[in-house]
Each structure stands twice: as structure tokens, then as C-alpha cells.
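writing this on my phone so excuse typos. first protein, seq and then structure
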Amino acid sequence: MASRCAAPRNRTLARVLLACTMPAAIFMPVWAATSSHALAAPKTYVVTIENMQFNPSTLTVKRGDRVVWINKDLFAHTVTADTHAFDSRSIAANASWSYEAAKAGSYAYGCTFHPTMHGALSVQ
């Protein structure tokens, strides 16, 4: 007799569990698809300093991305934001400097040693 009483309870428990887990099974792929962009790994971008120029001279990145400036000239340069938001100080020949873009905004920059050198970094 105990087995007859247990069967309806087990069916009820199974229905409750199914009702509770079914929405998660349906909506989990939707959540994963929409949140995967938010979990994207930061990217690294390279700006080459060569022939007294930043190449590319303009760059757009996202917050959290890293920008690496590589000096391929035979003499030192700087990467200094006009607003002083970042400043590499002197980057020797064949050396590099990196910056993690933490704050959104538009940043004009240049080389303090060579005033004709200009670039722009846009952080979204």
C-alpha cells in the first residue's frame, strides 16, 4: 500500500521539477547569446612609430583594450595625450609602451620631442 501512495507524490515532484527547470532550459541559450559580448576578452592594438609618424594615426578601441606603441625609429619618442590622460615618457628606439584604455573618451596625443607628430585615440 505504501507503494501506491508514493507513486502520486513522485509524479507530483517530477512535475514540479519539470516546471521549475523548463524555463531555465528555454531561456539559458538566450541569456548566453546576449551576455557573451559583455564577456569578450580585451583586444590588443599596435601603433607603430616610424618615419616620425604614428601608424595608424587614428584608432578606435573599447574600454579594457590595450594599445601598444612600438618605436621603430632610430631615436626616442613619447606618446603624450594633450589632456595628460596618459604619458609614455621617453620610448627608446626599438622599445615599446602600452596603455590600457580604461576611460571612454577621445584623446588627441603627440610626441613631446617632435611637435609635428600627432595621433588620436577614441575609447568607446
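second protein below, same order as before
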Amino acid sequence: MTNVARDHGDEPNSAGSRQEPRPDGKGATIPTPMTDLDGLKRPGIGTRARLEESSEQSVERLNKMHNAVRTILECVGEDPTRPGLLDTPKRYAKALMFFTKGYGENIGDIVNNAIFHEEHSEMVVVKDIEIFSMCEHHMVPFIGKMHIGYIPYHSVIGLSKLARIAEMFSRRLQIQERLTKEVANALMEVLHPQGVAVVMESSHLCMVMRGVGKSTAVTITSCVVGCFETNEKTRGEFLSLVGVNK
């Protein structure tokens, strides 16, 4: 069975830590790594602090966000004291915490032992999973759907867990390419199937509302692991089932 592909930059160096990019431009830039077993992608020390904070610290965090949003409103030329904007900093802070609630979730809690022994060796596909995420470059949404398929190896996972794993990773600041990989690699880690395939199609509002302004553009990303990577027929069957290669 094929192991999950890893970025070489995710491996520790001889000193036990990952090499960081240097400001002088020397050395390769390290891609943001995949997921760790706790379900939080690295680097993300601040996300762990968010998980462990007290109720007082949570209030302090929201107040800090309120002040930041108020400052943004002032900087764009608005009056944060006018009636329509008076509660906007509070509302936006709460909304942003919800949009990024995936930082407070982990794989173990999501799966919750919903893995069952089953001698089923044919493809399992859940398609058209709605995805709402936030682009980490502009902090505006990208919206689309994800298709997940796997071929079991003695075990199957509850179907709803596929959608919940996708939801967990999407409710973070993301790029579509990494989100696709994280879902595939997480499923390989928890289920150890013969292979996993993930395809995502989405519209990025950073392309619609700014820049090139292309409202009809759809971005498609894929990640294939295990037998989906090594067997063209298996990969083609999945793409046909989800309607990508029509």
C-alpha cells in the first residue's frame, strides 16, 4: 500500500527543526505542510493557544478583534459610530471566529471511532460536498464543491465523516491547493485505504470582486494518493463518477 506523500520541507533538519526561508532569498521557500495528527496544520502555534484559552482570554481575543475591525472601518473612510456600523466590529469578529472554527477541531473528534471493519474493496465516492472557505491571501471567500473517493482496505468510514473532514479543513484560512491535499492525506492517515482521490471545484471571490474580475472562472484542483495515483484506470473511473472528465 502506498504511503502518504509528504513535502520534503516537512522533514526536520539535522538540528531537529524545519529550515525557514531567509529574507535574503537564499534557500527554497518551504510550502505550508499538511496536517499533523491533532488536525492542525503547521505552522499554527496561535491556533493551539485559541484551543486552550480560558473564557476571560476568549473575551480578550474578541475585544482585540473588535478594535481591529473598528480601525479598518476608520481607515476605509467610514464612521464606526454611525448606527449601521455601531455593532459591526462585534458581528464581524463573531463571524470570523465561525468562518475559522476548523482551527478548534481535530481529526480524532471528527472521526469519533466511526471506522468499521468491512471486506468491501470497491470504490466509495461522496460527491458534491459544499465547501465554504477563506482565501488566506485576501481573506475573502472561495466557494465550491468537493468530491472524495477511496478504495477500502478492510475498513470503511462513516459517509458523513468525509464531509465533516472536508468541513474541518475548509473552515480555516486556506488556499484551494492545500485544502485538497489536506483532506486526501487526512483520510489516508485515519483509514489506511488502498488509495484516496479528492477533486475540488470552486469560484474564488478574489478573482471575481477584484483583480481580473472573471466571474465565471472555476478553479479545479485534485490530489490522488495510493492506487489512484498508480492506476490510471482507477483514477479514470473516479473522474467519470464525479463528472470531471465528461
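The chain has two domains: 45-103, 114-242. thats all i got for now
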